[in-house]
């Protein structure tokens, strides 16, 4: 049974302009409604973004417990007859330099999110960009050499300042030219995620990426 989005068949498409890095329209392309025109549910995107942020936490905080502290296991002095409080070995948590009780240990903060939910959240994020007129499609984004000034001039011509630029494959000149520009991130299509789509005001897709998204999200 064909998938539907907003009551429309999967085959229906939205048409958007394709521009070059000079900001001129060069053609049009179709965006599948099953990816770019679905109902946006903030709670679904929030679930996926929360999981993404949690997975970035290292969870490496750790203390030395009694068994990890270096020292003798011999009882410091006899149990009775000294008039002092009884004590165990020098590694006791009650003594300075002894083991720590109830301290943190390495852990994972990862939250499991079903693959279908992750895909759905990404579709919603992309749909929100199209609905908000914050989606730009470029025919290609090629620079003659690694130069930040050329990159800044190019994004100014296409009218974006705070943007996520998604390329089909590795583009070393573009990636190196953009790395010191605040508010802009260049990413390859396989790394596209909900958090980055929502973080930046504009989403810039190089035209072949659209076909890549179809293969990734309409399986």
Description:
With 219 residues, the chain is of the alpha/beta class. The protein folds into two domains: 4-57 and 110-217, 3-Layer(aba) Sandwich (Ribosomal Protein L4, Chain: A), CATH 3.40.1370; 58-108, no CATH class. It is built from seven helices and eight strands. The chain has helices spanning 33-36, 42-55, 115-131, 148-157, 172-178, 194-199, 208-217, and strands at residues 4-5, 8-9, 13-19, 25-32, 135-138, 163-167, 184-188, 202-206. A six-stranded mixed sheet has the order 4-3-5-8-6-7, sandwiched between helices. It has a two-stranded antiparallel ribbon with strand order 1-2. The chain is elongated. The two termini are 14 Å apart.
Short structural summary:
The protein is α/β, with parallel strands linked by helices. The chain has helices at residues 33-36, 42-55, 115-131, 148-157, 172-178, 194-199, 208-217, and strands spanning 4-5, 8-9, 13-19, 25-32, 135-138, 163-167, 184-188, 202-206.
Q: What brief labels describe this structure?
A:
219 residues; alpha/beta; Ribosomal Protein L4, Chain: A; 2 domains; six-stranded mixed β-sheet; two-stranded antiparallel sheet; 7 helices; 8 strands; 31% helix; 17% strand; elongated; disordered N terminus
Q: Shape, please?
A: elongated
> Percent of residues in helical segments?
25-40%
Radius of gyration: 28 Å
User: What CATH architecture of the largest domain do you see?
Assistant: 3-Layer(aba) Sandwich
CATH superfamily annotation of the largest domain: Ribosomal protein L4/L1
**CATH top level label of the largest domain:** Alpha Beta
Strand order of the largest sheet: 4-3-5-8-6-7
**What is the N-to-C order of secondary-structure elements (H for helix, E for strand)?**
EEEEHHHEHEHEHEH
From the N-terminal CA to the C-terminal CA, the straight-line distance is: 14 Å
Briefly note the structural class of the backbone: alpha/beta
Tally the beta strands.
8
- Give the count of structural domains: 2
Number of helices in the DSSP assignment? 7
Would you identify the regions where 5 or more consecutive residues have pLDDT less than 50? 1-10
Might you state the CATH topology name of the largest domain? Ribosomal Protein L4, Chain: A
Largest sheet, if any? 6 strands, mixed
């Amino acid at each position: 049974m064909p998938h539907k989005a907003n009551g429309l068949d999967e085959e229906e498409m939205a048409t958007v302009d394709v521009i070059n890095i000079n900001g001129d329209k060069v053609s049009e392309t179709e965006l599948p409604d099953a990816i770019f025109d679905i109902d946006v549910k903030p709670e679904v995107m929030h679930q996926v973004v929360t999981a993404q942020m949690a997975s970035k936490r290292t969870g490496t905080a750790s203390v030395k417990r009694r068994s990890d502290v270096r020292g003798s296991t011999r009882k410091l002095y006899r149990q009775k007859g000294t008039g002092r409080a009884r004590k165990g070995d020098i590694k006791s948590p009650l003594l300075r330099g002894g083991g720590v009780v109830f301290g943190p240990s390495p852990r994972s903060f990862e939250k499991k999110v079903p693959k279908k939910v992750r895909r759905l959240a990404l579709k919603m994020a992309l749909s929100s960009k199209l609905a908000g007129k914050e989606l730009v499609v470029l025919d290609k984004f090629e620079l003659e050499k690694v130069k930040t000034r050329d990159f800044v001039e190019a994004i100014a011509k296409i009218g974006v300042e705070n943007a996520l630029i998604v390329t089909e494959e590795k583009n070393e000149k573009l990636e190196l030219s953009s790395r010191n520009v605040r508010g802009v991130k260049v990413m390859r299509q396989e790394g596209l995620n909900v958090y980055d789509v929502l973080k930046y005001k504009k989403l810039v897709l190089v035209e072949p990426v659209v076909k890549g998204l179809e293969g990734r999200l309409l399986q």
